[in-house]
């Protein structure tokens, strides 16, 4: 549906986005993550036709939006990082204003406002002035404004920044429902668990370029070919440790009080063997946790841990 082709953006002499290639298929949810200043917001602005690339192109259903932006704008919903609402108007008045911008009017507009208010959980507060709303309520209304015209594709830039946990959970449930209903989604967030929850495919961006992309499992496989197993027992004997080392000669075994950590190749399936060795050495295991790399591990491994301004 939406494709970035060798996108490049310069502001004066500063390169902000460098040769970015991305693709969103119909009904796909795609995450875009990266450190502050990686170029995510500039990329989103080019994908949504708000700014033109220095070079490269964006295509919507095979048609260049740099030459014909209206074809995308009619079916695109954008939830910006900053709240884009009129604080002196009520929730309903805000929705009516944005609905008219999308060309909605009369009964159709009223019907869509009612549907959106229900989806974002603000039916009871629709007549209240927006400046009296909490941060979470404003975020939900911001999302509602982007849904009025039933967009084919939704771009969300950090939609849960700075809100309480309840509002965040409500927004995530709403977005998850939209994805399950077939919405094509491009989602950016600094919260890795949000991207893992919502996205089928993930692009990692750093210093203006895409440095990795794939499914969650494909990205996690970049970090390590190992798995880590944490074993707890009432008593961990040295005989049991030796038996583990003999059984898995390439494994790393570390002991810390009542915790034994075994790191070995993902290709091995060791749990049954470990429990058998424990029984043979009079060790009663109370818990066994298999830990695999997280998306945050991948992110930090690829981009580094140092903060950047």
UniProtKB/TrEMBL annotation:
InterPro entries: AAA+_ATPase, ABC_transporter-like_ATP-bd, ABC_transporter-like_CS, P-loop_NTPase. Gene3D superfamilies: P-loop containing nucleotide triphosphate hydrolases (3.40.50.300). Keywords: ATP-binding, Nucleotide-binding. GO terms for molecular function: ATP binding; ATP hydrolysis activity. Signal peptide: none annotated. It holds the Pfam family ABC_tran. It comes from Psychrobacillus insolitus. Coiled coil: none annotated. SMART domains: AAA (SM00382). This is ABC-2 type transport system ATP-binding protein. The keyword ATP-binding applies. The lineage of its organism: Bacteria, Bacillati, Bacillota, Bacilli, Bacillales. Residues 2-232 form the ABC transporter domain.
